Amino acid sequence: MDSCVIPLRHGGLSLVQTTDFFYPLVEDPYMMGRIACANVLSDLYAMGITECDNMLMLLSVSQSMTEEEREKITPLMIRGFRDAAEEGGTAVTGGQTVVNPWIIVGGVATVVCQPNEFIMPDSAVVGDVLVLTKPLGTQVAVNAHQWLDNPERWNKIKMVVSREEVELAYQEAMFNMATLNRTAAGLMHTFNAHAATDITGFGILGHSQNLAKQQRNEVSFVIHNLPIIAKMAAISKASGRFGLLQGTSAETSGGLLICLPREQAARFCSEIKSSKYGEGHQAWIVGIVEKGNRTARIIDKPRVIEVLPRGATATALAPDSSNASSEPSS
């Protein structure tokens, strides 16, 4: 599961806790701090938990950085992490900082819950619909952005994407990774979610398979649609890397994959886009739950939904923009 759930000795309460850390993948240290915090909290949100009682921050500063670099970059990462924690209604009360060959950033999130505050990820039933709350393609976007300065790599993809499109996709990926899954977690209760996980390092297929194995009923997940940041599918194909269309491309701080009753899924997708939750929340119906042996698969030719970056115009990303859609599709 995404978080450990430990029954406490007192009063029917459970301790729910998770930890996560990784290496920087964007250039902005403040945004990196926000992304790291969103990624830690996401494991709570995948359980339908919307509140966090406490966070710790884990930070390793690279020994190859100069003193000046450390003094500039470290406070920005800490501030980004703290700001995201505050947005999530919690606070960072401590942690650990070490010197290391690499920069590492992450943390621990802890909450004490009553049973009705979390949704165990094991109750999918035949007929449920799979909903995804962030587009795929973050790893492709951040790598493509690094390749802008690597002629050997850039030459492999420049026929399918422009420099401007890579910049837009990178900004979109950064914004998505820094967005908390808290709204989606709250709506899991409203719309009677049966199970969920967040999409991170194992890609949508890996996490779908892991979620399928946890189910009490004999079910399997079938994914038909892949919402992907515009042009990232073309880059994945042209570069021969990532496996984005196969569902194996790693994501960082990705969306929640939620099993919802069929009659609730479209309403969930519509509700999460409401302006009352702020800008930037999206959702797509990506698959179904059918009778099976607790496995997950992507169909041979999944429908790719090209998700336009904010700030992009449809014409700027033509001709592929004809199938762009932010509407839920079944």
From TrEMBL:
It catalyses: hydrogenselenide + ATP + H2O = selenophosphate + AMP + phosphate + 2 H(+). Residues 126-298 form the PurM-like C-terminal domain. Residues 2-108 form the PurM-like N-terminal domain. Pfam families: AIRS, AIRS_C. The keyword Transferase applies. GO terms for cellular component: cytoplasm. GO terms for biological process: selenium compound metabolic process; selenocysteine biosynthetic process. Coiled coil: none annotated. Synthesizes selenophosphate from selenide and ATP. Belongs to the selenophosphate synthase 1 family. Class I subfamily. This is Selenide, water dikinase 2.
